[in-house]
Design a protein that fits this description.
Length: 166
Amino acid sequence: MATVYLSLGTNLGDRARNLECAIACLTEVLDALVLSPVYETDPWGFNDQPDFYNLCLRGETMLEARALLYLLKGIERAIGRGKGTVWGPRLIDIDLLFYDDLVIDEPTLTVPHPHIRGRPFVLIPLLEVAEDLEHPVLGHSIRGLAAEVDAARVRRLDLYLSADKA
């Protein structure tokens, strides 16, 4: 089994429901899920859009990295994500952040995710499930990377979603 870390974000429609739908789909393919609380964050890149709900999770999978990425993109499509603007509004975004300690650099898959550093909306929730995880390329812990970002616009909500299968 491989340990994987994912980031989920949404800023359109019923944001909590979008995350719940994604998590329900993920419970079918990931085991031992541990979820961060939900955070509300300012948009990144393109600011004229609604705030995001973000969370990170840790899970275990038998799928290899490429198959997992393909499945994640299928979940996004099933929830209603289409082609949109880069950094624009979306119903759901699911990013594969880490897959064990593998380093993969291919045209369709880069692991660790190349944009983890400097993104408070990823690093602050990721602290909840991977505080001591070391980035295999940068050589820093998630705690160390999170200390580099301005977390003032990352607001922890009193919203804790469950990965329990119904």
